[in-house]
Amino acid sequence: MAFWWPLLVLALAYALCRFLLMLIPPNVPSIEVDTSDVVDDGGQARDNSFIYIPPRGRTQQADRKVQCYEPATMKYLGYFPALTTAEVEERVAQARKAQKIWAKSSFKQRRQFLRILLKYIIDHQELICEISSRDTGKTMVDASLGEIMTTCEKITWLLSEGEQWLKPEYRSSGRSMIHKRSKVEFYPLGVLGAIVSWNYPFHNIFNPMLAAVFSGNSIVIKVSEHASWSGCFYFRIIQAALTAVGAPENLVDVITGFAETGEALVSTVDKIIFVGSPGVGKMIMSKASETLIPVTLELGGKDAFIVCEDVDVSHVAQVAVRAALQSSGQNCAGAERFYVHKDIYSSFVTQVSKIVKSVTAGPPLAGKYDMGAICVQEHSERLQNLLNDALDKGANIVIRGSFGNLGEDAVDQFFPPTVIENVNHTMKLMQEEAFGPIIPIMKFSTDEEAVQLANDSNYGLGCAVFSGSQKRAKQIASQIHCGVAAVNDFASNYMCQSLPFGGVKHSGFGRFAGVEGLRACCLVKSVVEDRWWPFIKTKIPKPIQYPVAENGFEFQESLVEALYGLNIWDRLRALVNVLKFLSDQHPSGIKRSD
């Protein structure tokens, strides 16, 4: 007891000191970001705004302007230039110069950058969410869940664990290299490129940027033409935080444009990260093959949502509706296929329908609505075509949600939440990514059938499995071919930023987040050095020095058996032979002591 008592006192004192240090707020400076041209004076849009009628076809690209408008109201927001190939090359060249300086920065400086961002985000949640809402049509609550919380969680994880995962990692050296020290070192790749989608305009910029900058890279991000207005404002936040820590200018850049701009970015960076559709992802891969740069693709999803008969139906129904209507009905990382056990099928459909009946869609900043607008022009027409195909093949609409007070010019940008039953896999709705607020519910009889249905898809991003038995849910989830699985929950994986995020099949490859995502921003270098230098140095054994001795191969045979033989006595006998070979002054041939 006398021995342990001082150790216990020291441990308690250490814990107390850590607790007291936590009470001392860190010294994090505030930053000022110009919001004069984006903040409304209380209305949905400023007085000088007007209704925008998007041109059909490729008119925007021909004009070399990215036109921006609020999808929920069609109010005009302005335009940004569509950068040419030469302009993109210049931006990347500037980022490359900045990266050479930033690569030498300390983790202390990088952490301060993260803290400044975190402070600004927490203090300006409403502003950030409102900007996202205006540009994409999502509600403030959906923006908070998908934009603010995920980004804050990523920053917090990097602050807590980022440095330790970028430090050299020591590995075992094996039997033949026991006198060596082996490690893996992580160096910045250089200039990363990211082409991101519109569905989470804030997080889709910050997600690759945070990992890139923390690992010593620079990054150039092409934002979607459907979310350029918000993306360029969010860029100001990053610029202000970088300036506050003395980072070099042009370390992070945000560019706008169309296909030409994206192609130019792929051709000039050291790695490309793409978030978007499988079709464009294939074109990105093809372009990246010209310079043989690494590619991370986060593509479409058709996530399965499996409900066993032993669940709390009312609870899971609420989760299901949230999963389907996530992010204002844009279905960003949402579930698109619902498989429910036949014993509770009717009650589950009834519960889901009751919830959907209460859901109202409308301009998210004009009233209290549960769901916002469809962001992309003409997408509601595609959703209706998918629905019509299912109806033609025998499906039934159970219920549709309602609309709020829509403007005359914005009706096409809204699609009511829709519950549909009697679906099957011959329907396009169950095979193609919908990206919309449709809840198709199909019944299954056995767990094996549920797994088979879930795997019958070209996509493999994620799944969610619900059962009163956690063991059963885990067993089902383990058999589904996808990159992300949630057991008795939905989308909780992405809030665990220590975990990698990504899919398989047409959902892409490579990973964001976690150790895997952070190290994917690095040149991974294997390093071997002498463990006891200069006392023990590597020397080539005499029998295999040039000119190789006659018994060189016999020496190698004995050496291999001494190192890797399965029987200890055989290894010892082989070791004796090795020593004989090494001590022989006139190497020719030594009879093995077999």
Blueprint of the fold:
Elements: H1 4-23, H2 59-63, E1 65-69, E2 76-81, H3 85-102, H4 107-123, H5 125-136, H6 140-166, E3 169-171, E4 180-188, E5 191-195, H7 203-214, E6 218-222, H8 228-244, E7 252-255, H9 259-268, E8 271-275, H10 278-288, E9 295-298, E10 303-307, H11 313-325, E11 335-341, H12 345-357, E12 360-361, H13 379-392, E13 396-400, E14 402-403, E15 418-421, E16 438-444, H14 447-455, E17 459-460, E18 462-466, H15 470-478, E19 484-487, E20 504-505, E21 508-509, H16 514-519, E22 522-530, H17 552-564, H18 568-583
Parallel strand pairs: 5-6, 5-8, 6-7, 8-9, 10-11, 10-18, 11-16, 12-14, 15-16, 18-19
Antiparallel strand pairs: 1-2, 3-4, 4-22, 9-21, 13-15, 17-20
Helix pairs in contact: 3-9, 4-6, 4-8, 5-6, 5-8, 6-7, 11-12, 17-18
Descriptive account of the structure:
With 594 residues, the chain is of the alpha/beta class. It has helices at residues 4-23, 59-63, 85-102, 107-123, 125-136, 140-166, 203-214, 228-244, 259-268, 278-288, 313-325, 345-357, 379-392, 447-455, 470-478, 514-519, 552-564, 568-583, and strands at 65-69, 76-81, 169-171, 180-188, 191-195, 218-222, 252-255, 271-275, 295-298, 303-307, 335-341, 360-361, 396-400, 402-403, 418-421, 438-444, 459-460, 462-466, 484-487, 504-505, 508-509, 522-530. The chain has three domains: 79-299 and 517-526, Aldehyde Dehydrogenase, Chain A, domain 1 (3-Layer(aba) Sandwich), CATH 3.40.605; 303-458 and 462-499, 3-Layer(aba) Sandwich (Aldehyde Dehydrogenase, Chain A, domain 2); 539-584. 41% of the residues lie in helices and 17% in strands. The strands form six sheets. It has a seven-stranded mixed beta sheet with strand order 13-15-16-11-10-18-19, sandwiched between helices. The chain has a six-stranded mixed beta sheet with strand order 7-6-5-8-9-21, sandwiched between helices. A three-stranded antiparallel beta sheet has the order 3-4-22, with no helix packed on it. It is globular, with a radius of gyration of 29 Å. The active site is at residue 298. It comes from Eucalyptus grandis. Keywords: Oxidoreductase, Signal. InterPro entries: Ald_DH/histidinol_DH (IPR016161), Ald_DH_C (IPR016163), Ald_DH_CS_CYS (IPR016160), Ald_DH_CS_GLU (IPR029510), Ald_DH_N (IPR016162), Aldehyde_DH_dom (IPR015590).
